[in-house]
Design a protein that fits this description.
The chain contains eleven helices and 14 strands. With about 375 residues, the chain is of the alpha/beta class. Keywords: Hydrolase.
């Protein structure tokens, strides 16, 4: 596919931590009642906290990215929407596929974009939402090594209806037990369009992460945490049409050395060279592509490209089972059976709740995946 290609719409868009001897996984990590914590469409976006609910007994042991430190001061679970100037949209630059203006259609004073499918989407409806879904689990501790998960959603999605409620991405972060926070920028609003917006621009991903560090520090209650979040390692998860902002963030984002892992969920629709380049240059990180028949031929092509560069590729059920930690340098491709639908892939791929599974396996890796903060000398410039 071409550089600016969009994810095609299929005909029908269609823990894994070892249990302690005396506790089941669900006892150790009781699933929070996320649906009850979030505001409905008629409510404001005021934060809902766990103080509204009956306390639950603490888990016996948390999966973490280092030995447990003394507990941080009590803080509630935070899930909210934050406006960010550096988020994907609004975007008034060029489309790198054609080097022509992204907003290439006008009607009076109104401007819009003609998508890959030929449909016109208007800037004021589809490309004007600069909000980012931010989730900080109550047990997150900025004093300990941690990771920022950046989730790029697919076509036809909104942050509240899909990423938060249907795909349960914040819940998967919390349920993993890993010392992690979530950033999920709104891409094209509820549209069959994968455009990357500001993430197309050189340094765009770095600007996004730098601005996010300020908001994360505020949400954790300590302005001094800005430096911590500005150097914290990153795992990018791209679902379906999220392949495009993922690929461009890796290629021109300006901080690819901070990215410790990439997870593509039925998302290899193109940009193969960008994914192969990142894998080749960052052999201490990990790369996972799980796919259905819709993207199988692109995944096969990417595997062949990597093997031609001398990179070992693992295929099959290598992620299944609790005894399958995710090791540094792993390059894994997993084809799922036809029972797995594209639409439900963020919650059901090779396993139920695949984002949770990846984070749990990342934390259990021996030797550990490098999570120390980058130094100025090792970061991209």
């Amino acid at each position: 596919m071409t550089q600016g290609s969009q994810a095609p719409e299929p005909a029908a868009l269609a823990a894994n931590a070892a249990p302690a001897s005396e506790f089941t996984f669900e006892q150790r990590f009781p699933p929070p009642e996320f649906r009850d914590r979030f505001p409905t469409a008629s409510e404001s976006l005021a934060l809902h906290t766990q103080a509204e609910f009956a306390p639950k007994p603490p888990p016996a042991q948390l999966v973490s990215l280092e030995p447990q430190a003394p507990a941080p001061p009590q803080r509630d679970n935070v899930t909210t929407l934050v406006s960010m100037a550096s988020s994907a949209f609004p975007y008034f630059g060029n489309n790198p596929a054609s080097d022509a203006p992204f907003l290439n259609v006008s009607s009076g004073d109104r401007r819009g974009h003609r998508s890959f499918s030929g449909r016109v989407y208007w800037q004021d409806q589809t490309y004007n939402d600069n909000r980012v879904l931010v989730h900080v689990p109550e047990r997150f501790d900025a004093r300990k090594p941690g990771v920022i998960v950046v989730f790029f959603h697919g076509n036809g999605a909104t942050l509240e209806r899909d990423v938060r409620d249907r795909q349960m991405v914040p819940q998967q972060i919390t349920d993993s037990g890993v010392n992690a926070v979530l950033l999920a920028p709104q891409m094209a609003v509820d549209a069959a369009d994968s455009s990357a917006g500001k993430f197309w621009q050189p340094g765009g991903f770095k600007r996004f992460m730098d601005e996010a560090a300020v908001h994360l520090a505020r949400l954790t209650g300590d302005p001094a945490n800005v430096k911590t979040f500005a150097s914290m390692p990153i795992v990018i998860v791209g679902y379906s049409g999220g392949f495009l902002p993922t690929a461009w963030s890796l290629e021109v984002g300006g901080i690819s050395d901070r990215v410790r892992g990439v997870v593509l969920l039925d998302a290899v629709y193109g940009q193969l060279d960008k994914f192969a380049n990142w894998i080749e240059r960052h052999r201490s990180g990990f790369f996972i592509s799980s796919y259905t028949r819709y993207t199988a031929h692109h995944d096969q092509e990417l595997m062949a490209m990597l093997r031609s560069r001398g990179i070992d590729v693992l295929e099959g059920d290598v992620l299944k089972g609790q005894d399958r930690p995710l090791r540094p340098g792993s390059v894994v491709f997993v084809e799922t059976d036809e029972a797995m639908t594209h639409r439900d892939y963020v919650t059901q791929a090779w396993t139920r709740l695949p984002i949770k599974d990846v984070l749990t396996k990342m934390a259990a890796a021996q030797p550990p995946i490098r999570i120390a903060a980058s130094t100025p000398e090792t970061r991209d410039r």
